Amino acid sequence: MKNKLLISSLIFLSLASMVFANDIEEATGLYNEAIDLYKQDEIERSIELFNQAIEIKPDFYEAYYNLSQILMSLDKDEEAYKALEKLVKLKPDDYESLYNIGKIQHKRGYLLSAHEYLSKIPQNAPQYESAKLLISKIEKRQAELNLETKIKEHKVIVDTLGKVKGVELAEISAPSGVATDGRGNIYVASFSENIIYKISVFGQKKVFSKSALIKGPVGIAVDKNDNIYIANYLANNIVRITPNWQASIFADIEKPYCMFYDSEHNRIYVTEQNTNKLYKFDI
User: Fold this and answer.
1) What's this model's pTM, rounded to 2 decimal places?
2) Is residue 177 a contact partner of residue 230, using CB atoms and an 8 Å limit?
């Protein structure tokens, strides 16, 4: 039976022998009784007692954990989501719960929410690779939805047979350079505003950087670590912006214009318009 298979994954803690205040002792008694009922396949009653234990002890992590596991096994996604959300609030580095929230929200069609939770899982967590695969699926689906929306609501360019060749994504003042990072986010330079805009995989346009170092941005390149390089035409230099928005001057060059990132050799190429030269920078 599906519910029986869950037993091995639950955390069963015997807390009754510990000395707590009366309300904690009552919550502990309900918790242990809920576990016993679950073992006896009294699932609904077990859920009821876990909830009662939580009402008495709102920070009862173990009760939330077991409750969330049972609710997920029953496909009660909305209730499981609420229990998991509480778990993450009690313990922000509970990466198992973060991953489970991501799975549930993805299943429910809440792609932005799923992406947000899954993105919090670090590379050293056991759930990272699974989260990465799910994020990839979410971003691919979101890109499809964005395209469908853009085709319906924005200007499109079609060929003679009526096939869509191009779709308007965003309106930006004096757009110049454009590049994408490893996750499909798009970065566009606004020459007149001295701003780098970011268009996320969810189609949201926002200011990525408005650093005082940016003056007349033209070309853009993004390396394998998602550092952004900007051909700063009016300031005669190249500015690098890290993923956490730290900006610094990478190199001095007169009137830098076009940029290209060579991922195979981890270097960028930059044209210098003022002297009609091409430069190579190893990163």
Assistant:
1) 0.53
2) yes
Domain that residue 240 falls in: 175-282
CB 213 within 8 A of CB 249: yes
- Residue type at 277? K
How far is residue 65's CA from residue 80's CA, in Å, rounded to a whole number?
10
CATH number of the domain that 101 lies in? 1.25.40.10
> Are 117 and 218 members of one domain?
no
Structure tokens at 256: 């830098």
- Give helix 95-108 / helix 111-118 axis angle, nearest 10°: 160
Q: Which amino acid, 112?
A: L
What distance, in Å, lies between the first and last C-alpha atoms of the chain?
A: 56
CA dihedral sign, ordered 203, 206, 209, 214: positive
The total of structural domains in the chain comes to 2
Helix/strand/coil for 238: strand
**Residue 161 belongs to some domain of the structure:** no
pLDDT tens-digit map of 194-245:
999 998 877 788 999 999 999 999 999 999 999 999 999 999 999 999 988 9
CA angle 191–195–200, rounded 5-degree value: 115
Strands (E), the chain: 156-158, 164-167, 175-180, 186-190, 195-199, 205-209, 217-222, 228-232, 237-241, 247-252, 256-262, 267-272, 277-282
Cα 86 from chain centroid (whole Å):
19
